[in-house]
Amino acid sequence: MNEVISAKHISKSYHDLKAVDGLSLSVQKGEFFGFLGPNGAGKTTTIRMLTGVLKPDEGTILINNCDVKDKQQVSRVIGVLAESTGFYGWMNGEEYLHFFSNLYGIVNKEHTISSLLEEVGLAERKHTAIGTYSRGMKQRLGLAKSLINNPEILFLDEPTIGLDPQGQEDTQQLLKRLNKKGVTIFYSSHLLHEVSQLCSMIAVINNGKLVGEGTLEALQQQTGSKDLKDIFFALTNN
Amino acid sequence: MYKYIWLKDLKAELCTWKGLVWLPVTAVIFSVTSYLLLTNRELSLLDQTEMLWLFGKIIIGSSLLAVIIDASSLITSEFEYETIENLFLTPLSLKDFVIGKLLASLSLWALVYVVAVPYMVVTSAGSGLTGAFLGYTALFGTLAVLGFATLVFAVSFIYRSMKNTLTTSLVVLLALSIPALFSSALKNTTLARIFGNINPIDNIFSALDNILVDYQTSLGQNLTFIIPLIVFCAAMLVILILSVRAFRKKGIIKG
Question: Cα angle vertex A99, ends A167, A131, to 5°?
């Protein structure tokens, strides 16, 4: 295993509020890394720093041994489903993926797009304007977009939010398949049962600081709790 | 990569009411204006060259207004609809992003210009000025659109808000347009002369007067008006570069 995400002592403040405070993380290649924390703990800020859209005030971030500031290199190996993803409502699903595949300079895009639309269950609605999509459908499209460049590392911020139970199940299966193929997945979610089912490593942050990191078994030993919900409460002092 | 941003925005112009509305609106403005100029008793008494001058000012003025309103949303909508994050997660550079947006603005001007062409041809028929009218309107319109769109983009990166960008850009347009309405006496004051020499709108209107009313149609005879416009574009480009640098420093997501 080799390290594909390395964050060392990263901090970010919004005016007087320290959103992330000296956080260090290490994710190995092929890991399914769960990232947990209560609302406002700094999860989205951390993901935005790891993906290069937000500059940390302090600290260093390496993605696949490249400084995250090297946008050209980093953007080609990562896929991101951001928490607040906007869409061009006038485009249809296929056009949307076509647009992003052009930005990535993908060859054989027709095949990639049709298989991704099939994979996320939007093949039948690919010619419908995104403006008419439900929240769950937009989430599926966002997931397809994050996979368009066949990324080695996938950052997912609440990927199953807004999805119906079937959608959640389909997404989980898709992520499992991707992980099996060797894709490293950085997975932020509030759905603890999902995290416990999917993730091989779990990190918990609270008030911008890392309060726990390890396998589920290691966290169980650390907190003396069996259930991830109890572990979460124990680590975040709730 | 700017090509994809340009094509996306061009398609947005043509697929949504936002952009498409400008074409019928400008067509109505040009129809009403040319109809009045050709049929209204008082207006039709105007010398044809004076009429062309007035019509040229209306074409460039209304195009600038359309382009400024449209450009105000070209970049800011990416912030407001939260699509900017996804764009910059790709290998897209900021330079390509801006060039694509600038081309989209110029495309809207090109479309409005195409709508204006038949009106210009009809109103200038028989004057011997059709070529000059078409050519110089294209030249001055393109330079003005380039300068103002660049300014709008600079403001967009600072505010990241459509409302504030639009308000600021319209105030600038208004501030530069008002001196054009000054009487000749007012325009002859030293301050007004200095301001007139650097004001792009004043220069365009004076150039059209020079070309269409005074028949000074060669490029050399109009360099005194073209150079300030080029300087205006260059100055706006510098402002845009500074604004983009500040944006890059702050990051895509405002801290």
Answer: 50
Q: How far apart are CA A39 and CA A65, in angstroms?
A: 30
pTM for the full predicted model: 0.91
Q: What is the domain-level CATH number for residue A61?
A: 3.40.50.300
Domain that holds residue A34: 3-86+153-236
B144 residue type, one letter: A
Query: Looking at the complex, does the CB of residue A84 fall below 8 Å from at least one CB of chain B?
Result: yes
Q: What is the ipTM of this complex?
A: 0.91
Segment A185-222, tens digit of pLDDT? 999 988 898 999 999 999 999 999 999 999 999 999 98
Alpha helix locations (H) across chain B? 2-15, 17-20, 22-39, 48-74, 76-80, 84-88, 94-123, 130-159, 162-177, 184-187, 190-198, 200-208, 223-250
Structure tokens at A226: 């069996």
What pLDDT does residue B15 have?
Answer: 78
Specify the 3-state DSSP secondary structure of A213. Answer: strand
For chain B, list residues whose CB is within 8 angstroms of any CB belonging to chain A: 1, 4, 8, 12, 15-16, 81-93, 251-253, 255
Asked if residue A145 belongs to a domain, the reply is no
Who contacts B242 (Cβ-Cβ below 8 Å, separation ≥6)? B154
Using a 10 angstrom Cβ sphere, with 0-12 exposed, 13-18 middle and 19 or more buried, the burial of residue B178 is exposed
Q: How many domains does chain A have?
A: 1
Smallest Cα–Cα separation from B239: which of B173, B177, B174, B158?
B158
Tokens of A153: 């590392």
Distances (CA, A) of A39 to A209, B152, B192, B209: 13, 37, 59, 64
Single-letter residue type at A189: S
Q: Which residue of A has its CA nearest to B18?
A: A90
Where do the domains of chain B lie?
2-250
CB–CB of B81 and A48 under 8 A?
no
Nearest to B253 among A48, A71, A104 (CB): A48
Q: Which of B118, B8, B137, B117 is nearest to B64 (CA)?
A: B137
Place of tokens 């977009």: A145
* DSSP 8-state code for residue A129: B
Judge: B12–A90 Cβ closer than 8 Å, yes or no: yes
